[in-house]
Amino acid sequence: MTLHLDSQDALEDAVRTLVTQDKRLAPILAATGMPALRRREPGFAGIAHIVCGQQLSTASAAAIWGRLQAAFDPFDPDAIRRARADRLGRLGLSAAKIKTLKHIARELGAGRLNLDVLANEDADAAHATLTTLPGIGPWTADVYLLFCLGHGDAWPAGDLAVQEAVKVGLGLATRPTAKQMMPLAEGWRPLRGAAAHLWWSYYRVLKKREGIIAPAN
What is this structure's pTM? Predict the structure, then answer.
């Protein structure tokens, strides 16, 4: 059964369970305090919002997303599917992002993709489904699963902030790669999503204390 991080209470229960199971996390929680739940809009709008922000500054991404929302009200996959590419381009989307959003919109319209059911699938299977879509890489898939669907076991192995926090928190000699992050988190299943929230909180503590690299977009 998939745990959903759909409330602050659910996240706190999951974090307490993790700390009980893995004593190495106790000093991490002591340093951070209980992490706050981070949620974003679900469905097509949620994944479109993340795609808009790929490899852009926060300000640029927010500006583009604001223009898209103003241009398409309601913002739904059928509207994006029917929209002319040149119109989307004038709103600030790159050709690659237009291709991604239109493909997702077509898949949703044809019933070949159902974003809602991913919340109840095994995290690795849901991740694999999303990364088969053009323009959806591992980081985008994990952020969508975690923040839009509240998937309790999604694990953002490629996130630089989580990698750096794990390196410092577990006393590793070097920052682990995305591949190395997978076995490191194996013992936190099925609560890896809660562990990610904890490690993000720890990264923020470290960043205030010392100048660590910025997280990935």
Answer: 0.87
